[in-house]
Write a structure and sequence with these properties.
Length: about 100
């Protein structure tokens, strides 16, 4: 059984027991429960249900494992012949969740 969920402007294909990195959820501590209500597709014993745009009554339960930081990305800007160089960085913060039950 799997589902396709929409969260934070992205779509994820999830199975029960998967670990997933989603954008930071403020106030979500490890052990907290999160539900994803925007389920676009559910595949199960009864076949595939496709939503228009989402499947009514379907949800995916998840448990917060940790708050994490991603890799550091460096942005470099340079203008030729002007002696201008700038280097900045960015490190995105994520929430790691473990997918629990997929209910229809």
């Amino acid at each position: 059984m799997y589902a396709i969920i929409a969260a934070d402007g992205r779509q994820y294909k999830v199975h029960t027991g998967d670990e997933l990195q989603v954008d930071l959820r403020e106030g979500a501590n490890p052990g907290d429960a999160i539900t994803f209500d925007n389920v676009l597709l559910v595949s199960g014993e009864a076949g595939i249900q496709v939503g228009k745009p989402s499947v009514p009554g379907a949800s995916v339960a998840a448990e917060v494992i940790a708050q994490e930081k991603g890799e550091k990305l460096y942005i470099q800007k340079m203008r030729r012949r002007k002696n201008f160089r700038k280097r900045t960085g960015h490190r995105q913060r994520y929430t790691r969740v473990k997918i629990g039950a997929i209910s229809v």
